[in-house]
Automatic annotation (TrEMBL):
<keyword id="KW-1003">Cell membrane</keyword>
<feature type="domain" description="ABC transmembrane type-1">
    <location>
        <begin position="1"/>
        <end position="109"/>
    </location>
</feature>
<keyword id="KW-0812">Transmembrane</keyword>
<feature type="transmembrane region" description="Helical">
    <location>
        <begin position="66"/>
        <end position="87"/>
    </location>
</feature>
<keyword id="KW-0472">Membrane</keyword>
<keyword id="KW-0813">Transport</keyword>
<dbReference type="GO" id="GO:0055085">
    <property type="term" value="P:transmembrane transport"/>
</dbReference>
<dbReference type="GO" id="GO:0005886">
    <property type="term" value="C:plasma membrane"/>
</dbReference>
<dbReference type="Pfam" id="PF00528">
    <property type="entry name" value="BPD_transp_1"/>
</dbReference>
<feature type="transmembrane region" description="Helical">
    <location>
        <begin position="6"/>
        <end position="32"/>
    </location>
</feature>
<keyword id="KW-1133">Transmembrane helix</keyword>
<comment type="similarity">
    <text>Belongs to the binding-protein-dependent transport system permease family.</text>
</comment>
<dbReference type="InterPro" id="IPR000515">
    <property type="entry name" value="MetI-like"/>
</dbReference>
<protein>
    <submittedName>
        <fullName>Sugar ABC transporter permease</fullName>
    </submittedName>
</protein>
<dbReference type="InterPro" id="IPR035906">
    <property type="entry name" value="MetI-like_sf"/>
</dbReference>
């Protein structure tokens, strides 16, 4: 898998997801537990189906947490230089090279 560009990229993506999944899951679970059950039940009684309850009731309630998760995940992906360097060193053919990795590499040369 390391020898192909797609395989190396898949390995780096899998490692990054594995690294951030627990924290993201805990934040999401905490946000979902803060949504009052009464408003979900009232939306159900008003005839909202599952997708309508999620997008029109639950998601607006947890939007600040979702924005924090997106922000922290973006920062973590920018700071993934150590992960990329330890797994593939940007290779094969620069397939896993990011802008942050490029800046680090050119800064040391």
């Amino acid at each position: 898998l390391y020898t192909t560009a797609g395989g190396a990229l898949a390995i780096v993506i899998a490692a990054a997801v594995w690294r951030g999944l627990a924290f993201t899951t805990l934040l999401s679970l905490g946000a979902l537990q803060t949504v009052p059950q009464e408003i979900i039940e009232s939306a159900s009684l008003d005839g909202a189906n599952r997708s309508q309850r999620f997008f029109r009731v639950i998601l607006p309630q947890i939007r600040p947490t979702v924005l924090v998760i997106v922000l922290l995940t973006s920062i973590q992906s920018i700071n993934s230089v150590g992960l990329i360097f330890s797994i593939t060193r940007g290779g094969p053919g620069g397939a896993t090279r990011t802008a942050a990795y490029y800046l680090l590499q050119t800064g040391w040369e």
